[in-house]
Amino acid sequence: MSHCLWSLPHWLGQKGFLWLLHVVGSAPPAAKRMLRLIQSRVMLPGWRRECWTKSLAKADFRLPTPSYVPADGSTKYSAPSEPATPSFVTNIFCGHLSAENIFPFPSALSQEQEQSLKAMVGPLARFFEEVNDAAANEELGSIEEDTLAGLKKMGCFGLQVPEQLGGLGLSNTQYARLVEVLGTHDLGVGIILGAHQSIGLKGLLLFGTQSQKEKYLPRLARGENYAAYCLTEASSGSNAASLQTVAECSPCGSFYTLSGSKMWISNGGTADIFTVFARTPIKDVTTGEVKDPISAFVVERGFGGVSSGPPEKKMGIRCSNTAEVHFDGVKVPAENLLGGLGQGFKVAMDILNNGRFGMASALAGTMRGVLGKAVQHAANRKQFGSSLASFGAIQEKLARMAMLLYVTEAMAYVLSANLDSKVANYKLEAAISKIFASEAAWSVTDEVIQVLGAMGYMKDTGVERVLRDLRVFRIFEGTNDILRLYVALTGIEHAEKELQGLQKLRLGPEALCKEVGRRAMRKVGIPTGLTLQGMVHPELEESAALVTKAIDLFGEAIETLLLTHGSAVADKQFHLKRVADSAIDIYAMTVTLSRASRTLSLGQPTAQHEKLLCQTWCREASQRVRTSLREATSSKGEESFASMKLISDALVKNGGAVAAHPLGF
Q1: What HEC string does 156-214 produce?
Q2: Is 244 found in the same domain as 299?
Q3: Minimal CB count within 10 Å: which of 110, 150, 337, 624?
Q4: Does residue 274 sit in the same domain as residue 365?
Q5: pTM of the entire predicted model
Q6: Which domain holds residue 237?
Q7: What dihedral angle (degrees, nearest 10) is formed by the CA atoms of 570, 423, 92, 535?
Q8: What CATH number is given to the structural domain containing 339?
Q9: What residues are annotated to the active site?
Q10: pLDDT tens track for 204-252
Q11: Is residue 188 part of a domain?
């Protein structure tokens, strides 16, 4: 591929070559360097050399500079380059920039919603400070009665259930802010409420018929019944499509007989209403072939045949009930089919995608809470005659914690606002937010314990409980390892479709040469003209340039992987992990830029501090992107991956560590 750039004038032909000069001639200033670079590397015969030189001299390489409009926090900017989907993350896999859902920093709250939200946040925070006892809940293995009664009274079991059905009818952004309060004070209670409404009853909200909603949502909103989401089975953890639970339709078609078991179900032992996923055998009357697509059902414990195992003994979130749920010949009315026959996998994935934004906001609350403890301790604790906060090692820890919190909050509220604005494609952004928030919260809390020292390790401070509670967030609702593969493979599939379209030459001469020129520039590391100018605050333009450069590098790396490995790239998990890490970092940089730009444009008191957070994050993240992409595409990376495979294979074959003990026995 690398030699193709220098042979462009030869294989394009006269007409195609003139088009290339025209297109590149209207590109950014850096394109001029590319033309000179190509000119210096090739010997152009006859007409080609003459037209190259003339076009280079005449080309207008100036790029118009759009104005930044900061007065009211809104920004006008030019359209991104040819987005095929509104998803920012999906587009970067093709080297495209589609940032309309990120800039300016979105907010979907009306003035009335904002005022009502403010009226709820304070009382809820005070309730958790004065009434709820997280340590007591953990010892009890459930929520204390006073806390439970208060949560029901405040409507916390029906935050997003429509008001006409007994809930508070909150938007996604309002819900995110209240869940953040839960995450600050008690993740165990947060899991109970989250399992109930983020996933347990979410299927009814998204796919339920009006009669289903009217029947179940009022009592769920009042907290009279708990809800649970039943997907995971012993043989189908991350591979949800392999589940074995079966729901067979009766000959009369009036009910389904449900049989099977689900495991590790949050609220599994306490719930009365379950969203259950099962295979539904269907016989083709013409061919006699039997298919068994997955369907979703609303199942009541009261139907009979529903039982739960004992509560699981867990590392953390001990006040939340986790148990197996067994369905033994349960008769489920046909009207309880949710989302249509055979639509269960879509229902399951849409519920998870829609619920992940709440996890990011909850964990942002957790980080904000524990960070405060670290800062207070560092400021007040004296060692060697100085406060801990004066030592560079502690300063670095606090700064990194602050950056992780800042990025997580930006992700959470960009995503919730996008959901409220009915953005069509947000699944990769949702997955990234879950991955980032769960890992950031773990890192922050671990470092808080380090700053606190032995005090942090003790039970009384409560931080060790938070760390134990946090560990599961990297596992449930899609393990981070699987979600990384999901992000990488979904994006690569999109890029592959675009590349196949180009290879079939279904573009006109101008569009074709524009693509050729853009790919040629990316190949030699020259900017392709992507810009965030006019979107970001002028004080952050240097950081914005790091983002666009990273997108160019990312697009080139994805194309290289596709051309090198073809469809076999799906099996290159070493590479895919680094692709996903790069996508996560690029998205994190972008939402952070948006958030800091808004703060700067409004002249808020924290603007300069947020500018520092943004600049430092972007600087370090851009370096990580370079490293990850280099590892994913270089021969050195291939050597390391091959070595790790051999080491792993040897461990598996040996049943454990292979290296001999250093003492020899």
Answers
A1: CCCCCCCHHHCCCCCCHHHHHHHHHHHHHHCHHHHHHHHHHHHHHCHHHHHHCCHHHHH
A2: yes
A3: 110
A4: no
A5: 0.86
A6: 228-345
A7: -170
A8: 2.40.110.10
A9: 477
A10: 999 999 999 999 999 999 999 999 999 999 887 777 778 999 999 999 9
A11: no
